[in-house]
């Protein structure tokens, strides 16, 4: 294990955060950290990165205002820098959200490691790569962790935190405490599992959905309705395990397993991913357009943001950990 130089700032005292890669997720992180009162620097190589990022933050701000901004929180505390080095030069925490390409992540994390002050933890938003595979080019890999968020990071509380083989356990613990101080709900994983926990589950559902569209067994709309009108209502506040324990009545999970366990062997699920050929691609895109029924992506983002806030409020999770923050 490569020791991380002692972390220079305690997780609760962090004031300056750098976000590298400012698309859907990086921009969402920027909005979250600004709303929590941090100074944020951001860098993204795209020529239109700054206006695009500022538009994203502006669009998220009404939802964040409804949630309650931290004292002093302001969009003016965002600085978009011309270089990666400037973005991270004074950072007390770095969140990388560049495209999901292994070689790109490897090179970028090595560059970030070289440019970031010693003792600053660097987290990757990757949705599935193990840190062990991404930290190979870094001189001090001990401070590199995965901090996997959920879209949009400014509203969905969960972050999955896990280190790689060469990550220092102190860096993982530090990152988990930092995210909690920044208002997130954290699962600190003990070992590296590709896709972490939630994406393993989501991908299984997603694979089945694509197979059903490919085989003409269900439409995009039916797949979405089957979740929003069904299990999704329960999953917002009770996970799939405890929910199924109730399917066993007074006998709980034990009876549920005795009763329905054998059907696990029924050939209900296809473990292999379907071929994402043009026909399936077009069917899924057209199905989503039809379901959107003229609503733009911006309309849907606003609808989703309000929906998430309503669910958090209705299930007693507002303000999420706000009182513990900073
Ligand atoms: N979109 C999603 O729902 C989620 C995505 N993630 C992860 O977040 C990361 C970013 O994904 P998205 O924001 O969806 O992608 P995106 O395509 O929206 O944004 C990626 C951004 O990275 C920038 N970029 C390109 N090359 C770069 C480089 N060398 N260094 C820094 N930035 C660079 C692009 O200009 C773009 O603005 C990925 O690792 C992805 O797996 C994690 C959770 C959810
Ligand atoms: C689609 N995705 C795999 C990039 C999704 C995630 O990683 C998490 C999320 O927001 O659902």
From TrEMBL:
Its EC number is 1.1.1.108. SUPFAM superfamilies: 6-phosphogluconate dehydrogenase C-terminal domain-like, NAD(P)-binding Rossmann-fold domains. Its main location: cytoplasm. Residues 17-190 form the 3-hydroxyacyl-CoA dehydrogenase NAD binding domain. NAD(+) binds at residues 21-26. Residues 195-282 form the 3-hydroxyacyl-CoA dehydrogenase C-terminal domain. It catalyses: carnitine + NAD(+) = 3-dehydrocarnitine + NADH + H(+). Transmembrane segments: none annotated. Belongs to the 3-hydroxyacyl-CoA dehydrogenase family. L-carnitine dehydrogenase subfamily. Homodimer. Catalyzes the NAD(+)-dependent oxidation of L-carnitine to 3-dehydrocarnitine. This is L-carnitine dehydrogenase. It comes from Streptomyces alfalfae. The lineage of its organism: Bacteria, Bacillati, Actinomycetota, Actinomycetes, Kitasatosporales.
């Amino acid at each position: 294990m490569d020791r991380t130089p002692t972390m220079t700032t305690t997780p609760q005292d962090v004031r300056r955060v750098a976000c590298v890669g400012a698309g859907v997720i990086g921009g969402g992180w920027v909005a979250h950290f600004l709303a929590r009162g941090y100074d944020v620097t951001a860098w993204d190589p795209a020529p239109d990165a700054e206006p695009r990022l500022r538009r994203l933050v502006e669009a998220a701000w009404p939802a964040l205002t409804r949630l309650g901004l931290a004292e002093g929180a302001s969009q003016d505390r965002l600085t978009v820098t011309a270089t990666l080095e400037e973005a991270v030069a004074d950072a007390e925490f770095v969140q990388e959200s560049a495209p999901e390409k292994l070689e790109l992540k490897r090179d970028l994390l090595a560059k970030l490691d070289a440019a970031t002050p010693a003792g600053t933890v660097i987290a990757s938003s990757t949705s599935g790569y193990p840190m062990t595979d991404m930290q190979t080019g870094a001189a001090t890999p001990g401070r590199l962790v995965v901090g996997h968020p959920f879209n949009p990071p400014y509203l969905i509380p969960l972050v999955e935190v896990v280190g790689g083989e060469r990550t220092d356990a102190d860096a993982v613990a530090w990152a988990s405490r930092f995210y909690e101080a920044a208002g997130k709900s954290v699962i600190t994983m003990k070992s590296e599992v590709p896709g972490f926990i939630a994406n393993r589950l989501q991908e299984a559902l997603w694979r089945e959905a694509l197979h059903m569209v490919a085989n003409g067994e269900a439409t995009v709309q039916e797949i979405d309705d089957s979740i929003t009108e069904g299990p999704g209502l329960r999953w917002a506040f009770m996970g799939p395990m405890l929910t199924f324990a109730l399917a066993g009545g007074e006998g709980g999970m034990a009876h549920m397993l005795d009763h329905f366990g054998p059907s696990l062997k029924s050939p209900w699920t296809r473990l292999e991913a379907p071929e994402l050929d043009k026909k399936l691609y077009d069917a899924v895109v057209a199905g989503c357009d039809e379901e959107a029924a003229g609503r733009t992506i911006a309309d849907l983002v606003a609808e989703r943001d309000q929906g998430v806030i309503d669910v958090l409020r209705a299930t007693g999770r507002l303000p999420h950990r706000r009182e513990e923050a900073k």
